[in-house]
């Protein structure tokens, strides 16, 4: 099954990505917002540039500066504030480095930072300060990383992350997945991606071809934070991914001013399930420098999660977790503070 936007002859994903909005003034103009917001947005974008596909912009409410999709991508001056406890490596990525681009944090799993490129620059991104130029394995075609995975028979799952791994060409992804599949003890390939949500045309025939052909069990973990992110094209992309045999999960981040109320979280779970995606994790914000204004305090997070659990069946309630550097797994929020102490 090919997504509706491809079947209808719409621009392919590379064209759409090349035409993404990168100037805050243009984004504000498209949405009919106060042009005075451009100056602080440009100042914040010096540290972390704006990038958002136009199809995602089209889902935002015109004239609404508080639109939950806009808040995820528009730089603001508060990103320049220095906040105690917020850093460029909030979850201990660099301490878990095993080879260039290869992180091993949890038993049985290895994460490959396949690229630093992404289709959208989310302002709360926990890797917005990650040293991609130092860790990018492209120079040796992932040789050292794949050798490390091959040498460790305890690793049964490889996770492709980034950036967004679907920013790579399908030729490169097909080659990489084939090399991973050639390692006998690896059983599963997990792909963490926001592209099918912000750029559904990325789910094209070439992607579906190599994903459906691998011997590995495949899991695609999407990243959506609000029900308004789902439209017909996103739902078609999800259906196409599921048709390859992939298991579809979603992880969200609890974000102040975006989804920090029970109605928004409940609507998101319903939208996910309607698209064939199971809610998986609801993350408390990773404390990355520049994102403190998105933080929701733990007490309110727990209360919101409890309210959602009262409204929805258990399979639609994501686990509320925090990633703590050095912990053996993602921790339920109730345990996270005790572990960190």
How does this model look, in words?
The protein is an alpha/beta fold. 35% of the residues lie in helices and 13% in strands. The mean pLDDT is 93. The protein starts with a helix and ends with a helix.
Tell me which CATH architecture of the domain at 94-254 applies here: Alpha-Beta Barrel
Strand order of the largest sheet: 1-2-3-4-5-6-7-8-9-10
Looking at this structure, what is the CATH superfamily of the domain at 94-254?
Answer: Aldolase class I
Shape by Cα distribution = globular
Share in helix: 25-40%
Summing up helix and strand content along with how strands pair, one would put the structural category as alpha/beta
Question: Main sheet, how many strands, which sense, barrel?
Answer: 10 strands, mixed
> In DSSP terms, counting alpha (H) and pi (I) runs of 4 or more, how many helices?
15
CATH level-1 class of the domain at 94-254: Alpha Beta
How does the SSE layout of this entry go?
Layout: H1 4-7, H2 13-18, H3 24-30, H4 38-45, H5 54-57, H6 68-73, E1 97-99, E2 102-103, E3 109-113, H7 132-135, H8 143-151, E4 157-161, H9 170-181, E5 188-193, H10 195-198, H11 205-213, E6 217-222, H12 232-243, E7 247-253, H13 262-274, E8 278-283, H14 298-311, E9 319-322, E10 331-332, H15 333-340
Parallel strand pairs: 3-4, 4-5, 5-6, 6-7, 7-8, 8-9
Antiparallel strand pairs: 1-2, 2-3, 9-10
Helix pairs in contact: 9-11, 13-14
């Amino acid at each position: 099954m090919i997504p509706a936007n491809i079947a209808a002859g719409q621009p392919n994903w590379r064209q759409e990505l090349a035409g993404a909005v990168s100037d805050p003034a243009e984004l504000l103009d498209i949405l009919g917002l106060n042009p005075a917001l451009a100056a602080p947005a440009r100042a914040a974008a010096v540290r972390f540039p704006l990038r958002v596909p136009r199809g995602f912009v089209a889902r935002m409410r015109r004239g609404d500066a508080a639109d939950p999709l806009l808040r995820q991508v528009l730089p603001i001056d508060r990103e320049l504030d220095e906040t105690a406890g917020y850093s460029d490596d909030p979850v201990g990525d660099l301490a878990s480095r095993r080879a260039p681009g290869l992180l091993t944090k949890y038993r049985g799993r290895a994460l490959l930072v396949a690229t630093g490129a992404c289709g959208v620059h989310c302002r709360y991104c926990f890797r917005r300060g990650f040293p991609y130029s130092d860790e990018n394995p492209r120079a040796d075609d992932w040789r050292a990383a794949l050798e490390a995975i091959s040498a460790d028979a305890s690793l049964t799952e490889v996770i492709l992350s980034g950036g967004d791994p679907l920013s790579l060409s399908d030729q490169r992804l097909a080659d990489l997945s084939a090399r991973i599949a050639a390692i006998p003890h690896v059983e599963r390939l997990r792909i963490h991606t926001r592209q099918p949500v912000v750029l559904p045309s990325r789910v094209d025939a070439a992607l579906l071809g190599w994903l459906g052909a691998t011997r590995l069990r495949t899991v695609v973990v999407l990243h959506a934070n609000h029900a308004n992110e789902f439209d017909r094209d996103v739902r078609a992309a999800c259906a196409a991914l599921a048709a390859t045999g992939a298991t579809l999960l979603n992880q969200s981040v609890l974000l102040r001013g975006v989804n920090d109320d029970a109605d928004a979280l409940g609507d998101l779970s319903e939208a996910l399930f309607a698209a064939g995606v199971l809610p998986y994790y609801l993350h408390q914000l990773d404390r990355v420098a520049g994102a403190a204004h998105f933080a929701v305090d733990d007490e309110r997070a727990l209360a919101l999660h409890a309210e959602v659990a009262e409204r929805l069946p258990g399979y639609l309630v994501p686990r509320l977790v925090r990633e703590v550097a050095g912990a053996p797994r993602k921790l339920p929020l109730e345990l996270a503070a005790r572990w960190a102490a």
